[in-house]
Amino acid sequence: MKTVFKSILAAVSIALVASTAQAAGSLEELLQEVKKNRVSEARINKQREAEFQSARADKQALVRKAQAALKAEKNRGDDLQKQFSDNEVKLAEKEVELTQATGTLGEMFGVVRQASAEAYGQISTSIVSAEFPGRGAFLKRMSEESKGLPNIKELEDLWFALQTEMTESGQVSRFTTEVVSLDGGSQQQEVVRIGTFNLVGEQGYLVYDDQNEKVQPLGRQPDSHLLSSAQEMRAATSGLIPFYADPSSGAILGLLKEKATMMERYHAGGTVGYVITVMLAIGLLIGLYKIVTLTIVSGKISSQVKNIENPSSGNPLGRILTVYRENKSADVETLELKLDEAILRELPKIDSGINVIKIFAAMAPLLGLLGTVLGMILTFQQITLFGTGDPKLMAGSISMALVTTAQGIIAALPLLLTHSIVSGRSKSIVHILDEQTAGIVAAHAESEKV
Amino acid sequence: MLYLIELWESVRDFIAAGGDVLYVVALALFLMWVLMIERYWYLSSVFPKLRDEIISNWDARSDTTSWYAHRIRDTWISQASDGLSARMLLIKTLVAMCPLIGLLGTVTGMIGVFETMATQGTSNPRLMAAGISMATIPTMAGMVAALSGVFFSSRLEAKVKMAKVKLIDSLPHH
Question: pTM score, two decimals?
Fold first, then answer.
């Protein structure tokens, strides 16, 4: 339509140009021209109309084609819908069929899962895993997997894992593994495993850390006789070896770490404990010194008794006898006074120090009591601050209080014994000097007279 | 024989329940009784001979009234009494030590109880009971040991005193 309009416009413009150029003189020509143009114009229009007509037919054909395609697709959709619902029904049928076919096998899956969960708990913490690492992962996966039935291979693996644990629990085996030492380093060493109970390495008993899958020495080793039995076990190659095994697979040995050593207990006593120790040491040293000196003195005295003729100045009896010899000619009363004086001079030396032991023996339990009271004060301070909620907090200082009492008694016992021995010895010497010297002198004088 | 084995088993159970302090109590008790039996033996068989010897020596003397005679008499009495009262102090000390050792057992047992409390808490009374039996059994054992010693040692002391007085009375001044 646009082209038609354009062409008309062009014709008009040409006509106008012609009219202006050639003026009125050529109107006849213009008319001819217009007529001629009109004929050609009509012819073009007709041709175009024909073209349009033919194009319309084509488009209709296209529409028909598209409609046919739509219909086909709809049919296909219906078919698929039907197929889907059919399949759904079939699936439900198959599901029922599956549950029927599985039957008791379904329960087996639950059992397998439960068994593998149990086995995981047991096997991952077992020391056998130190020798055969990586057994836990498969069991963990199997116990956590919730879909699908276990296949034959998995069932077999579970069986083997359980069987391995069972067999190894009855065997003593020797293998090399990495042992993490307590200061952080690690080394390869030969380790002996006794059933599922204990691992023994160079440092003694070892524990298996199942979190990091590492073998490490026990924080505190048990007593030396237990340890030496473990080392004998480690060194032995055959035969029957007595061995201290931990039947709880490490739990009892673990408790050992929490037990305080004698040294720790001793230091729990604090200052009071040290004072008691010093007193015990001083008391025992004095006692030892007194025992030695008194034994020497009494030995000298007894040899002097046999040899009254020659008094020596090296022992108390000899010195008293010297006094007698010097006053032989004096009368009896003067002689007795002189002898008493000489005896009184000797006694303090023999008695000295014995009372110190007795005082120490009496003081040690008192000091222990002091420590107890101090510890109880500490306990009550802790109760004031933190309340009674945590018995562990209180138990610490209470045991400290008791330790000093124990130390006091432990110190008092040997001191008491030492005191009774020393004072018994000194008493017998004092008796000889005090009560018997005059008699010895008198007997000697009588024998001299005769 | 079976009876002895059972007895030994019960003793072992007792020691296991009471702890190592019982060994110390047993040692003190053993020492105390050995010393006391030795004293009884001395009093009944050794001392009479010594006493008779001293008395006959004294009776043989012509001079029993001078200063010399008095001193010699005192010496003989002192020697005899030294022999009589030897180790009596040790026996008395051991008797006094027995309850003290029992007390030591009490204290160590209580330390055990509180250690259990510190590590395990108070939830399990069975764990603490082991410590408590270690606290009470040595106390009882110490008491029993001391009681058995107190009676006989005081009897012994009285006998020693009597023997000495009798000896003095048998040495008259003529």
Answer: 0.68
With a cut of 80, say whether residue A3 has pLDDT above it. Answer: no
CA dihedral (A188, A194, A199, A204) positive or negative? negative
Q: For position A70, what pLDDT does the model report?
A: 95
User: Which residue in A312, A322, A283 sits closest to A421, CA to CA?
Assistant: A283
Chain A within 8 Å of B119 (Cβ-Cβ)? yes
Which candidate from A395, A412, A420 shows the least CB-CB separation from B100? A412
B132: contact with A, CB 8 A cutoff:
no
Q: What is the number of other CB atoms lying within 10 angstroms of the CB of residue A161? A: 21
Question: How far is A98 from A77, CA to CA, in rounded Å?
Answer: 31
Pair of tokens at residue A322: 């010297």
Q: Which amino acid belongs to residue A280? A: L
B107:A398 CB<8 A: no
**How many C-beta atoms surround the C-beta of residue B161 within 10 A?**
13
Size of interface A-B (CB pairs under 8 A): 105
Strand partners, A176: A190
Pairwise CA distance, residues A426 & A434, whole Å = 12
Reported ipTM: the value is 0.88
CA distance A129 to A79: 60
Q: Report d(CA B132, CA B126) in Å as an integer.
A: 10
* Residue B90, both tokens: 């040790």
Q: Which two tokens stand for residue A432?
A: 């000889």
Per-state percent for chain A, helix, strand, coil, to nearest 5:
75, 5, 20
Q: Do residues B118 and A392 touch, judged by C-beta distance below 8 A?
A: yes
